[in-house]
Amino acid sequence: QEYTAEINAFSASSAEEVEAFRLRFLVNKGIVRSLFDEFKTVSADEKRTLGKVLNEFKQLAESKHQSLLTKLEGAADQHVGSSEDLTLPGRGFELGSRHPLLLVRKEIVDIFKKMGFIVAEGPEIEDDWHNFSALNFPEEHPARDMQDTFFVEKKEGNDIALRTHTSSVQVRMMEMGKPPFRAIMPGRVYRNEAISARAHCFFHQIEGLYVDENVSFADLKQTLYQFVQELYGEGTKVRFRPSYFPFTEPSAEMDISCSICKGDGCAMCKGSGWVEILGCGMVDPNVLENCGIDSKKYSGFAFGMGIERVTNLKYEIKDLRLFSENDIRFLKQFETEI
Ligand code: PHE
């Protein structure tokens, strides 16, 4: 009874006092234990009544200890709470942002959609036929070389590789359907190149294809001219230089007047005032025939541009590696873009 009264009256305001309680009652040499030791010596008759009393006493000591601990923790919480300045502004959540390459891809896609182009995609792991042969690449063409292409699997007559350009999607599209075709095909492409500020082992392209009766080089020029006016602003100049691609004839490269230095000379246009942004040309009749399309009836144009390059020009990004490093400090800068 004496101990019960002591326990009921006990209060603690510190961890040390709670610990003192535990040491007095609950440890091996504590009061509860010693009472149980004494209990062994009493007569069988007394055991019946005393046993119940002792068990209740033990429970009381244990639950008291628990409640002392709980109170102490509650007090600790309150202490922290009260020392916090509730008038401080909260910490905001970090919001993600769109990747600059996706922003530009969307912008390009939207412009061509307005001109009636649909969007199509193809696989990144391609076979030799779709990436090279159907596109009129001669057997010994250097682009098939190990140096440029990541081969996945050597197969008799039809190696499997990571596509080196999105032109492979042109082939898939033409094989699958009937003209007219009017599509743009964005995607990632791979080339076995040393990684530097200006080259990477993967990058992104947007392919364009328009095949119908009577499609001419004039259509190609007008479509691309209109595209550039929308992307870089009214009055941006374009020029076409003759070029060579196995799958287009004639072929050209298109330059635009430098949007960064406006012709005064900068690193992007190397002082020339012009920057190359895409390759294009009239689809070679061999390619049409390879895809089962009558080249006497149909003609078409195709173009392919690197999204990184267009993005560099728009945002003046000088190191390609930034696009794939996922550095938050870089990505955060595009938070305010749509
Ligand atoms: N596939 C070419 C490249 O990767 C670009 C291109 C596409 C050129 C379509 C002409 C027509 O360089």
Automatic annotation (TrEMBL):
Question: Which SUPFAM superfamilies is this protein grouped with?
Answer: Class II aaRS and biotin synthetases (SSF55681), tRNA-binding arm (SSF46589)
Supply one GO molecular-function term.
phenylalanine-tRNA ligase activity
Q: Which reaction is recorded as catalysed by this protein? A: tRNA(Phe) + L-phenylalanine + ATP = L-phenylalanyl-tRNA(Phe) + AMP + diphosphate + H(+)
The answer to whether UniProt assigns keyword Protein biosynthesis to this entry is: yes
Protein's cellular compartments = Cytoplasm
Q: What is its EC number?
A: 6.1.1.20
**NCBIfam families of this UniProt entry?**
pheS
> Self-association or partners: how does it assemble?
Tetramer of two alpha and two beta subunits.
Q: Which family does it belong to?
A: Belongs to the class-II aminoacyl-tRNA synthetase family. Phe-tRNA synthetase alpha subunit type 1 subfamily.
* Identification of the protein by name: Phenylalanine--tRNA ligase alpha subunit
- Which organism's genome codes for this protein? Albibacterium profundi
